[in-house]
Structures are given as structure tokens and as C-alpha cells.
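Look over this entry.
=====
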Amino acid sequence: MTQSPPTQREITPADSLDCSGLLCPLPVYKTALALGNLQPGEVLELITTDPGALEDIPAMARQRGDTVLASEDRGSSQRFLIEKGTQT
């Protein structure tokens, strides 16, 4: 029997970070710090209002070896679920 990957609703983040009101580079910097406090495989929920985060956060995750499990553009805000990789 195969299992489907978890949906956003089934993922329980280990931590949450609200970067609302912050502009680049602060959301990227604070996200990197928060991910540094997690264990590999744990998930961080990130909320930001910086539209540049839609490109900046996935780029940062790729560079660090982390995985963006989900990203959602909510118009005035963005939500990301980022799984910490084993390389960082």
C-alpha cells in the first residue's frame, strides 16, 4: 500500500516564524536562523509580507539544502512550509 504525500493540513510545523512587515533581506536572514534551530526533517512555517520572498525563500532553501514543501501567495502575505535538510 502506498501513501500519498502529506497535505499542508497534515503537516505540523515544529516552529513558526512571522516576518510580517519585514523586507529583504530580513525574512531570509531570520528564516535561516530559525531553520538553524531545527533538527533535520523538522518543518518551519513562515509568514511574510515581502513579495520578494516568493523567489528569495525558495532560493535560500535550495542553497541550504532545505525543501519548500508548500508556498502560498495570499495576496498581501505569503506562507511557506520549509523542511530542514540534512546538509545544514
About this structure: The longest strand covers residues 67-73. Helices lie at 26-36, 53-64. The two ends are 33 Å apart (CA to CA). Residues 24-83 form a domain with the Translation Initiation Factor IF3 fold (CATH 3.30.110.40).
